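hey so i finally got around to running both of the ones u sent me last week. sorry it took forever, my laptop kept dying halfway thru and i had to restart like 3 times lol. anyway pasting them below in the order u listed, first the sequence line then the structure token line for each. didnt double check formatting much so if smth looks off just lmk and ill redo it

first one:
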Amino acid sequence: MEITYEDFRNVQIHVGTVLSVKKNEKARQPSLVLEVNFGKEIGVKTSSAKITHNYNRENLTGKQIIAVCNFPTKNIAGIVSEVLILGAVEKGGEVVLLHPSKKVANGLEIY
């Protein structure tokens, strides 16, 4: 299905820095709960993500990620997930997160 450029412009994709990471103990599939700082305008948002194959608290804290910030909130195993963190999904279901190639300001929009 094709979308228009205007459709794409309605998706708010931004850069944020991971502040904290913990396991989502109630999730059926192994998941992590991330608090991400998207800067002054967007603020700190929470997300639950199935990314445990490649990521943990040690290698995520302080890392910049890219996320869709204008989806409605979704309750995922007791966690109010406010953003959708973006990644490439390999054949086995393992996620490789998208991130800037160099450090940039939190909140920058992705075009």
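and the second one:
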Amino acid sequence: MRPAVHDRYGPPEVLRIEEVDRPVPAAGEILVRVRAATVNRNDCAWRSAKPAFQRAFSGWRRPKWRILGDEYAGTVEAVEPDVTRFAVGDEVFGVRTYLDAGFGGHAEYL
């Protein structure tokens, strides 16, 4: 898949499209094909590390999470056996945070 990634803090120009492995859902997880995602103030703060105290959460020297995007909408592509609430083909939307294993909405799959 080809997400927007960043390996250093800075302006929007630090973002680039890079080929990375498609995520594999673990036990109790689903795989979502992202159809739409927002770019909001939250993403800008995580990308730029401004205000400076942001680095206490996002990494002092470089970003902990290369793929940003906390709000997304998409379609369920795969469901692990112990997931009963969702089925392949369901349309979903949600919000991911650094507490949820690190964003991911600015990718083709999460």
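quick thing i noticed on the 2nd:
The longest strand covers residues 71-79.
anyway thats it, ttyl
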